[in-house]
Amino acid sequence: MRVYESEVPGVGRKFELELTGGTSVVVVVHHDGRCELFRRDGPDADGEKILDLKGEQANRLGSILEGAYFESVDVDSLSVPLGEAIIEWVEVGTGSPVAGETLESSEIRTETGTSIIAIQRGEETVSNPDADTELEPGDLLVAVGTREEQAELAALVEGSA
Amino acid sequence: MAAETALLEVGAMFAAIGAVGFLAGRLDLSPIPFYILVGIALNESVLGAVGLPAVSNGEFVQVGAELGIVFLLFFLGLEFNLDRLLADRTRIGTAGVIDLVVNFGVGLGVGWLLFGSLLPALLIAGVVYISSSAIITKSLLDLGWIANPESSPLLGVLVFEDLVVAVYLAVVTALVAGGGDVGAAARAIGIAFAFILFLLAIVAAGTALFERLLDTPSSEYFILRAVGVTVLLAGAALAVGVSEAVAAFFVGMAFSATEYVHDLETALSSIRDVFAAVFFFWIGLVTDPFVVVGAADVILLLVVLTAPAKLLSGFYGGRAYALNDRRSLRVGLAMVTRGEFSLIIAAVALSGAGSTLPVETAETIYAAAVGYVLVMSALGTTLMGASGRFERFLPS
């Protein structure tokens, strides 16, 4: 992937990013931070302006594209300190081995180390489900655990463990 | 002029500039011709002629206009990219030389035909050679051409022209200010180049000095130091008979080597905008519209000869970049626009009235340049906007 960078005197800098199929994206960053985005569909095509962003909007978009932007999680509402752990969502498919099992009999906690802190079932949310809660196909399990534990959980729920 | 009316006049000037700037924004046009026209409207020959209080060509407006020239050229130097010129020297060189030879040549020929001597011919050649970086770049952004391949030769040739105009202004200012005979002219050019060498030495050796100078957390001290150095050196240049514009260009280049380029652009662009507008206003203020109308034949001749010349040189400039016919045509259409630098040359011509230039010749060149810029800035942007219609005539 090649990026061409050049000065536009009196305006700012221009970046050209070649995408696949001859398409390219041209970004003009003005001295005042304003940012214009153009798309060109081929070497002979004219640039078509897609976006005209103010400095702050451009920075926000940039951080989203970079994967660095996220809405902050309301950590205060969680009673357990997370430490290394992260929260993930796993869906119970129709053919999942845990469907029809209770939380206890599914051995999710003993097998994977993750804790199910909530189950999203259609419109309804079962928070703090107890050991007897039966898992149904279509349930969305909200689990706390380390990255490795989350991977094991996903494998268990999918049935490939 | 009493002090209390001086402030009122300056206020009227800025209010008028602000008002036509708003109008230009609404009409989506370059404000430069509007500033000139409002200057003409408020001057002694128009508003004064019907008995209304006109804005006089006072000291503040004159110095403000000079500051406008200084900051326009300072920014040119600040954003002048010698590396870009060198990195792409074959293509920029080819397109730039075609542009220079064709348009400067046409200007020189017409100027010689009209006035029969070298200095007026050189001034006319300068006026018709320099395309307007400010208006062309704005149009490139407005039309979205900035994202297209035609922007490369356009910006490249503009950089080439900037360098030529710096040298040209040094020579022509020296010639206009230097007295009549060849010896005096040679001496004046000698001083000009000595001063340029001095400034180049500052550019080459002074980066660390400039870095230290600008190294302050206070935005107030930062802007004051930058303005102080720039205006002082430009003023010193003018005092020894060298173009203040050229000095400002090299001071800008010296600052462009520091890490503060971006901060300077941000901090000083509003000062440049204010005083550049005063410069264009002043151009209008000292323009007698009846003289411009009187020079209509010269203006018409210049437009008819130089618009096709730029179109042609621009087209072959685009070809030097291996662009197809359609895009090369666009390069030609865009280059037609003339503007701020032609007016700076017009101001130089006026400064020689009665000394190195006969008063009538100087006034004709000045009036022709103002009328020419008004026509060409409108014509250039119109041609760019209507490029689709021209592209249809190309053989497919």
UniProtKB/TrEMBL annotation, chain A:
GO terms for MF: monoatomic cation transmembrane transporter activity
Taxonomic lineage: Archaea, Methanobacteriati, Methanobacteriota, Stenosarchaea group, Halobacteria
Domain RCK C-terminal as annotated: residue spans: 75-159
A GO BP entry: potassium ion transport
Domain of life: Archaea
Protein name: Potassium transporter TrkA
Protein species of origin: Haloplanus aerogenes
InterPro entries: AAE_transporter (IPR050144), KhtT (IPR026278), KhtT-like_N (IPR058776), RCK_C (IPR006037), RCK_C_sf (IPR036721)
Annotated Pfam families: KhtT_N, TrkA_C
TrEMBL record, chain B:
An example Gene Ontology molecular-function term: antiporter activity
Transmembrane segments: 6-25, 32-54, 60-80, 92-115, 153-176, 188-210, 274-292, 298-318, 339-359, 365-386
Keyword Isomerase belongs to the record: no
InterPro entries per the UniProt record, alphabetical: Cation/H_exchanger_TM, Na+/solute_symporter_sf
Record-annotated Cation/H+ exchanger transmembrane domain positions: 14-381
One GO term of the biological process aspect: proton transmembrane transport
Keyword Mitochondrion: no
Keyword terms of this UniProt record: Membrane, Transmembrane, Transmembrane helix, Transport
Membrane topology term: Multi-pass membrane protein
Protein name: CPA2 family monovalent cation:H+ antiporter-2
GO CC terms, sorted: membrane
Main location: membrane
Family per record: Belongs to the monovalent cation:proton antiporter 2 (CPA2) transporter (TC 2.A.37) family.
Subcellular location: Membrane
Biological source species: Haloplanus aerogenes
